[in-house]
Amino acid sequence: MTSEITSPTWRGALFIVIIASICWLGGANIRALIGSQMLRPGTLEFAEYLAPEAEREIFRLLSLSSITIIVSYLATLISSTVFLSTCPFKMKQHGWLLMSAILFYLFVPVEFFVMYLDGRMIYLEFWTTENNQVLRELFLARLGALAGAPLIATLCYYTIIFLVVFQPLKKIEPRLA
Question: Is residue 42 classed exposed, middle or buried when 0-12, 13-18 and 19+ CB atoms within 10 A define those classes?
Fold first, then answer.
């Protein structure tokens, strides 16, 4: 039992989960802030005041942030799998860990679909000479992807942070005197 607790594998995986998830969620927030500059507040209509060059620069910034998000999400996914398979915590005794795993892995298909759309935007931005209209259509497709499931996923990811910090549903073993 003590070798499991001191094992560097699950501790290293946990470290990578923490760093990669900070980069991933931070990048997602940055991308949302950048993307909101192109739209009229509260709508999915593009603002008319942006020059085509400024709009193209926003698409470039969205593509660059998407690269960071994709890489850090994949690192989080892989390292969380390693962590869960090697950590000494039992899901039966640590309900917060079970709930966190369920919330995270539930939205893996959603994230892969959104990564596909982001990958198309990255390809169009850096390896083609498509006009802004094609990128606009792809941007709107990403915002409306799966009827808002990416937004619900983001709320679940922030719920995971709450679960990990406060650790509800933790079964405490009674101590004998």
Answer: exposed
Does 176 fall in a domain?
A: no
Tell me the residue range of the domain where 135 lies: 2-166
The model carries a pTM of: 0.91
Q: What angle do CA 35, 37, 42 make, to 5 degrees?
A: 90
Q: Would residue 95 count as lying in a domain?
A: yes
Residue 46 lies in a domain: yes
- Reduced to 3 states (helix: H, G, I; strand: E, B; else coil), residue 95 is helix
> For residue 75, which of 31, 117, 37, 27 has the smallest C-alpha distance?
27
What would the two tokens of residue 90 be? 């039992």
What pLDDT digit, counting tens, does each position of 106-165 carry?
999 999 999 999 999 999 999 998 889 999 999 999 988 888 899 999 999 999 999 999
